[in-house]
């Protein structure tokens, strides 16, 4: 009697390592066609990454849906993130929330996210109905503080999402425009790209857009930084060289307290902000004519004890497509 043999994931990996990409794709497609959820998920990832197969967000969405229907929990989470961020289709907050609700019955992480969302006051698009009051720390250049912008549970969720992704931070090298390690920033960092932007993080990004009076599409992927004793971000401007879509604003969200040092300092305007967990700081990086404003040079002073966790959102002048360019923060 003939038995159906599913290609083992290790078999596909071996084909890929041997450079037999065509055979690996064919084997995975056969398995996917027979309803194998791992194969469906793998094809979806290939269409998201765009190396083994061409990047095709809409196709990735279909494959993730099928993988989710076959019981793949990670595919379900990814489908939800792409749904709420509008990757491969228009952003659809209510469908994303509905899928999250369904997933909650079988997955504790989804249930926790659903609970965090319930505690937020959001409209039908995930936009907050109310905002904390702004405290203007400097009128020109504009620096504004929003106390208790995030709850402790929201901060913990961001930190937990980024923790497995933390790597030594990179900065953009002005000469080459490439990302490289640099002593200017010695923290560890992680990007929360569109496949990991779950509804809670999406809602927080929408809240960041609201306090910065920008559109959520202008924001780069949320960057999480963790500074341990001795680590710092030396004096710098957040603007980028050679770009037509400048970083016009920055939002820093302090995710914790209980550490020493780590103040954010703006020496030109004599301003030092002591981080407090949950607070958000918003500042302009450019003058009214759109040029870098050197008065907003700032530093994250060295942490002396404990660990400082920070979420940074660099906000561009216009929409910023996270899927453009070779290095997408998946
Ligand atoms: O760590 C800080 O307080 C500053 C961080 C910062 O400058 C940035 O993320 O652009
Ligand atoms: Fe900065």
From TrEMBL:
Domain Fe2OG dioxygenase: 213-317
Gene3D superfamilies xrefs: q2cbj1_9rhob like domain, Tetratricopeptide repeat domain
Keywords tagged on the record: Dioxygenase, Endoplasmic reticulum, Glycoprotein, Iron, Metal-binding, Oxidoreductase, Vitamin C
Domain of life from the UniProt record: Bacteria
InterPro entries listed in its UniProt record: Oxoglu/Fe-dep_dioxygenase_dom, P4HA-like, Pro_4_hyd_alph, Pro_4_hyd_alph_FE2OG_OXY, Sel1-like, TPR-like_helical_dom_sf
The protein's required cofactors: L-ascorbate
Record's protein name: 2OG-Fe(II) oxygenase
């Amino acid at each position: 009697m003939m038995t159906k043999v599913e290609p083992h994931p290790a078999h596909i990996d071996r084909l890929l390592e041997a450079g037999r990409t065509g055979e690996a794709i064919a084997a995975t497609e056969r398995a996917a066609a027979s309803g194998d959820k791992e194969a469906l998920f793998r094809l979806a990832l290939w269409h998201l990454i765009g190396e083994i197969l061409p990047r095709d967000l809409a196709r990735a969405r279909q494959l993730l849906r099928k993988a989710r229907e076959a019981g793949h929990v990670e595919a379900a989470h990814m489908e939800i993130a792409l749904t709420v961020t509008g990757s491969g289709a228009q952003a659809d907050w209510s469908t994303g929330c509905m899928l999250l609700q369904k997933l909650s019955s079988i997955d504790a992480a989804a249930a926790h996210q659903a609970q965090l969302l319930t505690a937020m006051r959001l409209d039908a698009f995930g936009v907050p109905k109310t905002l904390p009051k702004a405290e203007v720390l400097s009128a020109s250049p504009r620096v504004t503080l929003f106390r208790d912008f995030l709850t402790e549970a929201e901060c913990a969720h961001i930190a937990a999402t980024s923790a497995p992704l933390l790597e030594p931070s990179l900065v953009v090298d002005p000469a080459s425009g490439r990302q490289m390690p640099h002593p200017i920033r010695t923290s560890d960092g992680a990007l929360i790209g569109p496949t990991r932007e779950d509804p809670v993080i999406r809602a927080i990004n929408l809240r960041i857009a609201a306090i910065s009076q920008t559109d959520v599409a202008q924001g780069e992927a949320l960057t999480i930084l963790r500074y341990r004793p001795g680590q710092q971000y030396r004096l710098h401007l957040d603007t980028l060289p050679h770009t037509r879509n400048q970083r016009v604003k920055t939002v820093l969200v302090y995710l914790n307290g209980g550490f020493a040092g780590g103040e954010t300092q703006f020496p030109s305007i004599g301003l030092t902000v002591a981080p407090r967990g949950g607070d958000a700081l918003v500042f302009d990086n450019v003058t009214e004519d759109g040029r870098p404003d050197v008065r907003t040079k700032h530093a994250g002073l060295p942490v002396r004890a404990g660990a400082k966790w920070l979420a940074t959102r660099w906000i561009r002048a216009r929409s910023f497509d996270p899927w453009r360019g070779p290095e997408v923060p998946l």
